[in-house]
Amino acid sequence: MYVLVERISIRVRRLRTPLVAKLLSRLWELRSKGVKVYNLSAGQPGFQPPIEARQYLSQLLLQNFPELYKYTPIEGIRELREAVAEDLRENYGFEIDPETQIVITAGGEEALYLSLLTTVNEGEEVILFDPTFLEYEPLVNLVGGKPVFVKTVEEKGYQPDINDLMEKISRRTKALIITTPDNPTGRIIGVEEAKAIADLAEDYGFWVFSDETYQYMVFEGEHVPMYRFDNIRDRIGVIGSFSKDTGFSGWRIGYVYGPEEFIQSLKKAKEYITLNTSTIAQYAITYFLRSRLRNTYTKFIVNEYRKRRDVLYSEIRKKLPEAKPFNPQGAFYMFVNMEAYMKKHGFKSSLDLANYLLEKAYVATIPGEVCGPTSNRHIRFSFSSITKEEIVEAIEKVSEILK
User: Pseudo-torsion of CA 229, 231, 236, 240, nearest 10°?
Assistant: First the structure.
């Protein structure tokens, strides 16, 4: 008889305790008791998908259309891959072959997971920026990679510290993940910084995975797509998502594009994980792209998010004068340095502060420490699923308990 020392795999044991899940569970518990909780933690849109898309789907469901209920090709239906290629051509001038260079995925997170699974071997290093999206580090751990954090400069709008990046590159560096516009800061990567990353990737031979989920949600400035740099087109995977700018977040649909060898290898991995992305979601997004709803719906929601951002920034500056908010250029998050208030009230971590805001002010936020090892003084406020009036009320409540 053999006794297994560990019942749970090393891969899963490497994953950190789900701190955010505990906070969100408490949020729903409070709401179930009738407490009004201001949700500034949500990372999903506060708008339903456009009515035109919903009407199209309702009609499609009533038609005799058996393909809607069947498996699709692993890489996604041809119509959607062609629509994505057309979208990239129209917006950036990129010529992406829909037959060999695009795979439709179950959200942007699967796209990144498959990208890492396809390229990273056990013990190889993956560079992340600090702060960064809270899911990246666990995904790197899950595939057996080693996360290596590189500083960003808060005083320079959270642009990557290229000198620190150069110091962190090693013989074991296999990939670098960047997101722009950024979650949690809303920073758009600068052209100089983006080019420096591309040049280093070319020089040292590592992959660049560019998460451009928020590429169409820009308030000021201009999105810098990493695929624009010709010198890394043989070693880049670009992740896109239809969760944020379409309203279909729960339908889990995204995509990845890059060089043919990489994409075809990634497709092999997808076959044994999800086989294909939701069929009805693929037809929904094909309609969204082909009907040009991005020209109306997405512009509308970006304008609404801009108004919410302006209210949140103004309220924090006015009612929390010792806080240091970064005014985001895109996405729908505001990353706020709360160090002064943490010292004043004796909080040792951003998680302690986030718990205090939830229990005493009924304001749900995300602690900065889940976004990177040196972001423990920060709180991420989301303005995606809350009205302007609720933002004013929420920050007033936070101000009252932190005086």
Answer: 10
pTM of the full predicted structure? 0.96
d(CA 98, CA 2): 51
Query: What is the residue whose two structure tokens read 């994505």?
Result: 84
Q: Is the peptide bond before 181 cis (omega within 30 degrees of 0)?
A: yes
Contact status, residue 324 vs residue 369, Cβ threshold 8 Å = no
Structural domains of the chain ordered from first start: 10-48+297-402 (3.90.1150.10), 72-292 (3.40.640.10)
Residues 6+ apart with CB under 8 A from 301: 45, 47, 217, 245, 247
Angle formed at CA 152 by CA 147 and CA 156, multiple of 5 degrees: 170
| Whole-angstrom distance, CA of residue 72 vs CA of residue 345 | 55
CA dist 240 to 52, 88, 93, 144, 373, Å? 22, 11, 16, 24, 26
Reduced to 3 states (helix: H, G, I; strand: E, B; else coil), residue 146 is strand
pLDDT tens for each residue of the chain, 403 residues long: 555 557 889 888 888 777 888 888 999 999 999 999 999 998 889 999 999 999 999 999 999 999 999 999 999 999 999 999 999 999 999 999 999 999 999 999 999 999 999 999 999 999 999 999 999 999 999 999 999 999 999 999 999 999 999 999 999 999 999 999 999 999 999 999 999 999 999 999 999 999 999 999 999 999 999 999 999 999 999 999 999 999 999 999 999 999 999 999 999 999 999 999 999 999 999 999 999 998 899 999 999 999 999 999 999 999 999 999 999 999 999 999 999 999 999 999 999 999 999 999 999 999 999 999 999 999 999 999 999 999 999 999 999 999 8
Rounded distance between C-alpha atoms, residue 41 and residue 56, angstroms: 32
Q: What is the DSSP letter of 191?
A: H
Instruction: Name which of 182, 175, 237 is nearest 200 in CA terms.
Output: 175
Rounded CA separation 281/251 (Å)? 6
Tokens at 327, concatenated: 């005014």
